[in-house]
Amino acid sequence: MELDTPMIGLDPEDNVQFKPGPCVVAEMRRYSSRKASEYKRKVVGAQEVDNWIEERGEFASPAASEHCGAVRWMYVCVIIPTKGSSSRPLTGGSFACTSPTALDSDGNYLSSNETLELALSQETFDRLTTRYGFSPQVQEAWRYRSSSGCGARKIEYDDSSGEIKSLVLVMSIRLSGSFASVIAINHDFRKKCTVVLALRVSPYDQTLLQKALESHQDLVGHPLLIPTMVVEISLATNMLYMQKIRHELSVIEKATGQHAWLQIPAADAPAHDSELSRLGHAVKIHISLSRRRLDSIKCWLELIKKSLKDLEQPISNSFVRTAGPKHEYEQWMGNVELLVQFRQVDLCYSDRRADNQVTAIYGLLSQRDNMVGVSVAIESKKISEASKRDGSALKSLTVLTALFFPATYIATLFTLPNFAGTPFWLYWAVAIPLTLVIFGSWASWTFYRQHQIAQETTARNIDQDIELDPERAFPPSPFNAASSSFVMSTLRQIRLQTKQSHAHSTSADAMTQRIEHSVGNKNMRH
């Protein structure tokens, strides 16, 4: 199975299928009495979809003077699972997600092999996107479904009067899930109506959108109501990821014991060090994903604030009749921005906790490696002590051999026929002096080698001390300060002359070699 990463880039754009079927449409209106209608939701067929697009029949829009604003929704897609997925396709504009193929069980890494099925014919979809100015931005947003997001804004002006006629905004943004939803928005300032085309929106997200619209029904008709509402939902659902990060951090802190929560005792670390390390890096990945979502939300907020500034006059003419809705929207935007800042503070705090735990994990791994090294050193010491005992035994055996070998050799000689009748005292007269000579020679040589090795070791240590610090090797004292200074200066001069003589000898050797080489070349010519 192919795993996707966040560094995918553009996804294939040819995996879109058009299969006409039922679509879900919804609508909410606000009247001059500031009373909003109920959120009406209906499943429509192909013929009713045409009426909805053309605003005919029961979907006809009332005159602009009869209402203060309207929002019209259409959910038109179903996600087809890839091969091997057990997901069950649903109808009626619902959503069936592909089976997760990434490390995260929530599917944070999107599968680029999934297919987008639109419950419209290609002709109807082209007519819908052309009528409301969604093409080709919708197709581009689908191509960027694996990235942090995609957006496009277009302001249409009236050719005769030069006034702003409509605002088109296409958003690729993550709502409750890790997949990106594509939401295309068209607000007509003359009709005070907002048309929303929603692709890849799950039933749960549809419910969230409905509740958010009902909670902000006094702002129905505001051109930036839907973008702000979508951003607020994405920010609110991001709390689920924050809770997941906090839970995983608590598990790691309990395993490592590196925390300040006195009421949480430290538990035994996982049996495998790789498992604990994997958990630590998984938390870092989740923090990066959550930070990416917050950064994309900040991008959308900047675009919304810029649009609010650019459309200040059209909004005042078409929507704001009193100061109440204007102040309400400004306070709402301020609250959303404040929540974004708080989420960033939480992310920074969680990131520091994760860094501390990753450091603690590496510390635990290093401690375990050190303990293994200590145990290996202990075993090596035991082996060396056993080897030393074996060497002592072999030495004793050698001494015994040297002690009895001369007498054994002489006894073997006296058994020959040539020495028959030799007195017995002669054997001892020869064997004892020979044994003493051999044993004494071996002992003298052994003591001489030990003394020579001790002298070489002492001289080597003195040379190292002088090389590092002559003053430390010969510390001055109040009684022999002059002699110590003389010794140290003498040592420095000796070292300097040694280095110079070595350099001169090296250069002289090189000069001699060059002269011999040149003389040899001349002789060869002659």
From TrEMBL:
Q: Where is this region: Disordered?
A: 501-526
* Membrane spanning residue stretches: 397-419, 425-448
Q: Which UniProt keywords apply?
A: Membrane, Transmembrane, Transmembrane helix
Biased composition regions of type Polar residues, renumbered to the chain: 501-510
Q: Which Gene3D superfamilies match?
A: Magnesium transport protein CorA, transmembrane region (1.20.58.340)
User: Keyword Transmembrane helix, does the record have it?
Assistant: yes
Q: What is this protein called?
A: Uncharacterized protein
Native species: Aspergillus ochraceoroseus
